[in-house]
Amino acid sequence: MDISGKRVLVTGADGFIGSHLVELLVKKGATVRALSYYNSFNYWGWLESSPIRDSLDIQTGDIRDPHYCLTLCEDVDVIFHLAALIPIPYSYIAPSSFVDTNITGTLNICQAARMNKVKKLLVTSTSEVYGSAQYVPIDEKHPLQPQSPYSATKIGADAIAMSYFYSFELPVAVMRPFNTYGPRQSARAIIPTIISQMAANQPTIKLGNLETTRDFNYVEDTCAGMVAIAESDKTIGETVNIGSNQEVSMLETFDIIKEIMDSKTVVERDEARIRPGKSEVTRLKCDNKKIKELTGFTPNTP
Q: Is there a domain that residue 57 lies in?
């Protein structure tokens, strides 16, 4: 399926990855309806400053409302479902909010897609569902480990989506990106945290566990992987990793940025930033063979 000319809905379009995805979809010739989370300020997040803002059909609403979702999904061919609550520390203190948004919200989108006979639904998962790697690289058959309320709700959301494939033959694919970085990312994330403090000439940066590793992917690669999964008919009913098959520790990440920025900043381990012991995901490294086999996609950015 060629995404060009298709009517596409992106939920979570006002966020970091979502705003980049809508820009890529417009570039590829899709007609895009972009969902921004409703708020009393009528603020559209990153869509406010998007260079293709005038090319979008921007809607405001809430995926937790099933009635709204039915209307939102009318007259679209493809849905990229990215809307979610994602900050892991917040999931420790507000787990019900994550259940409502991530699980019930996904259920609402699945039902709306089914009722509106959508041609393909792409549900966004996360590498956090794997927990700390039991083996590397992590393929799609790796056991799922709910090491935070956030990851538990994403496991639930993935299961809801796949149940609609098996029960109702809804054309679903679950996209499972590993860690994404790039412009517009929240300042609470590790790479923006390091860069912003070095740019401010801070003598010391306090970070959490410096030994943990992640498979980092530039946001444009993540979005290109999502579009590749959407365009391949082989991905229906499949869960597909999006990653680089490389890992880097937090300390190595700090050192790389320090060299690039020619900074004299030093790093200290901050115990307050470390997750509860059994909740810490210590190692993530993607096995990306499946996405290569099904779509031919490989990331471009080292």
A: yes
Phi, psi of 182 (to 5 degrees): 145, -175
Per-residue CA distances from 239 to 67, 79, 123, 277 (Å): 28, 16, 9, 29
Domain count, the chain: 2
Same domain for 145 and 204, yes or no, is no
The DSSP output letter for 182 is: S
Looking up tokens 């609402």 gives 108
Angle of helix 250-260 relative to helix 190-199, nearest 10 degrees, comes to 30
DSSP alpha helix (H) spans, 77-210 = 88-93, 95-98, 105-115, 149-168, 190-199
Q: What is the DSSP string of 196-261?
A: HHHHTT-SEEEES-SS-EE--EEHHHHHHHHHHHHH-GGGTT-EEEE--S--EEHHHHHHHHHHHT
Query: Full-prediction pTM beyond 0.85?
Result: yes
Q: Do residues 65 and 81 both lie within one domain?
A: yes
Q: Are residues 23 and 46 in the same domain?
A: yes
Query: pLDDT for 31-80, tens place per residue?
Result: 999 999 999 999 999 999 999 999 999 999 999 999 999 999 999 999 99
Contact 230, 120 (CB under 8 A): yes
Backbone angles phi, psi at 138, to 5 degrees: -85, 115
Residue type, 267: V
Cβ(10)–Cβ(50) below 8 Å: no
